[in-house]
Amino acid sequence: MRFKRTAVDEFELIQTYFVSTDEGSGVVTGIGDDGAVLQPELGRELVTVVDTLVGGTHFPDVTDAGDIGYRAVAVNLSDIAAMGARPRWMTLALTLPNADAGWVGRFAEGMRAAAAPHDVALVGGDTTSGDCLVVSVQITGDVEAGCALHRSGACVDDTIFVTGTFGDAAAGLGLLAAGTPNSYLSSRFLRPAARVEYGQQLVGCATAVIDVSDGLIGDLQKLLSASGVGGVIDLEKVPVSSELQAAFAPDEQRRFALSGGDDYELCFTAAAKNVPAAAGIAVTAIGTITREAGLVCRDHGAVVPYHDSGYRHFR
Ligand code: ADP
Ligand code: MG
Fold it and tell me: CA 29, CA 21: separation in Å to the nearest integer?
């Protein structure tokens, strides 16, 4: 579809901001044809994920274009990480209310900042005008055949682990929306650090993995039910950052950490002795897999009720 009433047209936008001189490995045909042609490696399987961000729903309207571009890539990298895969190629479907060249330039720069460290090449997409901003990024990765990680493999007596800290992004989003951003907490929402390398390190060791996008309690429950097991976690072990502790009272910290979304950390199960160290990020044991279905939350040993099951659309 062509833009009307705008300074730059679709073709110019793509040429200027999305075509890269560096095509990326395994790209036989990139941007410019009717489809991308990609060369998978022998003995590896493809893993494909897609995530859509809608302006005003998934981020405040005032969000900087660079942050939107970064986040649109990072949330997909996090799904790739949870599958134990290596990200390789991405496509972008972009719907814009107006084709402002400066905005698109900053957006493309944000996408590149998230993708380049992982050598992910943009190989195609679609650009349309529409009433509201919609960004849909799709990433394809690969993993050694038969080795992809799933939500469904947790075994009784496995330890439940998490990477990083929880609650920062939800707290940061609240502060952004209130017009009082905290630079650390807000950047944890705007520029999440997908655990791409660590996800690949978990291949052969984790029994089940999920990336936490909708709140720790809700996403851990998804892993437990996919695996047909139960779990018990110790709430005081759920890691929270010093920045979250400095900005909020303990009960608010806990609410953000357990049911706030957008953390993009990994939650996984493994036999405790098998777990690899992660470069630069904490990996914390928070509980144990049990035979009986359901999640039990303990606070310093006492069982406590906990209901919130995380963010859901259409609820
Ligand atoms: P078609 O009409 O065949 O769908 P388009 O004119 O929409 O092709 O797109 C031309 C080329 O530009 C295609 O290779 C397409 O993948 C690529 N492209 C379009 N929009 C984007 C975008 N936002 N990001 C990256 N590549 C894009
Ligand atoms: Mg075509």
Answer: 13
